Amino acid sequence: MTGPFRPTVAEVDLEAIRHNVRALKPDGVELMAVVKADGYGHGAVPVARAALQAGATWLGVALVEEGLALRDSGVDAPVLVLSEFPPGSEKDALEAGLTPSLYTERGLAALAGAAGRDVGVHVKVDTGMHRVGLWPPEEALAFADRVVDAGLRLEGLWTHFARSDEDAAVTTGQLERFLTVADALGRAGHRPRYRHAANSAATIRLPAAHLDLVRVGIALYGLGAAPGLAEEAGLRPALSWRSEVSMARRLPAGESVSYGHRYRLERDAWVATVPVGYADGYSRRLSGRAEVLLGGRRRPVAGTVTMDQILVDCGDDRVEEGQEVVLIGRQGEEEIRADDLAAWSGTIPYEIVTGIGGRVPREHRG
Fold it and tell me: What's the CA gap between 204 and 184, in Å, rounded?
């Protein structure tokens, strides 16, 4: 196979990744680049390498499989798995040098049984997110004792903020509770090398949360966890999503287009077909709401998004097969951002970029 043959492609600017790492990394503090979900849809391995080149010292993943894929690609930096190793995965994960998170007795027992050498672990404390982690957080001291008694090394202590993108008071409260736990561990002789709490929003807006390490996810890719955050930090979006016109025709006023005929032309118009659809992650929720860039102008998506194609209403502007269509990115003076698609489809930019399907090739530059 010599393809891809279809012109729909997601382009990732690795220099933007490097720029964002440099913009986000606090002085004297290490940075973990979170590359779970295939680097938020950008390609985990190229993003990881670019982030490390720019000064990141850790990588974060959600799954053991994601960590193993990094190792199989030759990435040898420290990798923290942000949830406990699933039962049965401990041996493979440890042999690959993945760093475990711990927060349950089951996880501790399984890890202690699999560890045949010095293993550093990061204990996660639940300070209010209530997803995973030790709860109540005050149990961390006794848990840390059991970690050390099991022959493991307490390398890290961490927590995760629930509302750092929107509520400074709640976030500060979580941070204070975490620091109280960390101080109690210190008085008992437990002094982990890494205390970490700051996610993307806290890295930008809450310097007190920087501690020893910040964990940067969505901001690494130039996207904001909240409106205005990316601009506040001077970040650059790394991903653009492009296609081309595959067919163009002029239709008379009164014609309706796409499934359900939910879009009716009020005047004669050029209508372009573009080979991208909901099977590629261009959500059906964008039907009748989204815009694309074509000919340097914003154009409405006409009617229902189908599995493999969309239609675009270009009005009186003649279009030709092969013309560039921008789904995310810049064209001329105009720009459509992942945030725009998120707003049109009633979701967040995380879902937009991670939802771009595997049949859309990623092209990395920079």
Answer: 27
How many domains would you assign to the chain?
2
Strand partners, 256: 264
My answer on whether 61 and 146 are in the same domain is yes
Long-range own/partner contacts, residues 259-264 (CB < 8 A, 24 or more apart): 259/303, 259/304, 259/306, 260/303, 260/304, 261/303, 262/287, 262/288, 262/303, 262/304, 263/288, 263/302, 263/303, 263/304, 263/311, 263/313
User: Active site residue: 36, 103, 194, 221, which one?
Assistant: 36
217: domain CATH number? Answer: 3.20.20.10
Whether 259 is catalytic is yes
- For 320-356, write each residue's pLDDT tens digit: 999 999 999 999 999 999 999 999 999 999 999 999 9
Instruction: Give 55-78 as a DSSP string.
Output: T--EEEESSHHHHHHHHHTT--S-
C-alpha gyration radius of the chain: 24
CA separation for the pair 157, 122 (Å, rounded): 5
- Asked if residues 44 and 62 have their Cβ atoms less than 8 Å apart, the reply is no
CATH number at residue 255: 2.40.37.10
Three-state secondary structure of 319-349:
CCCCCEEEEEEEECCEEECHHHHHHHHCCCH
Range of the domain at 124: 14-221
Question: Two tokens at 252?
Answer: 């008379």
Catalytic-residue membership of 282:
no
Q: Give the pLDDT confidence score for residue 118 in this predicted structure.
A: 84
**Which pLDDT belongs to residue 2?**
62
Whether residues 217 and 110 fall in one domain: yes
The answer to whether residue 171 sits within a structural domain is yes
pTM greater than 0.85 (yes/no): yes
Active-site residue, from 103, 194, 259, 282: 259
Residues ≥6 apart with Cβ < 8 Å to 250 = 268, 269, 270, 271, 318
User: Which residues of the chain have a pLDDT value below 50?
Assistant: none
- Domain shared by 194 and 276, yes or no: no
Looking at residue 260, its amino acid is: G
Q: Which residues share a beta bridge with 299?
A: 292
Three-state DSSP class for 271?
strand
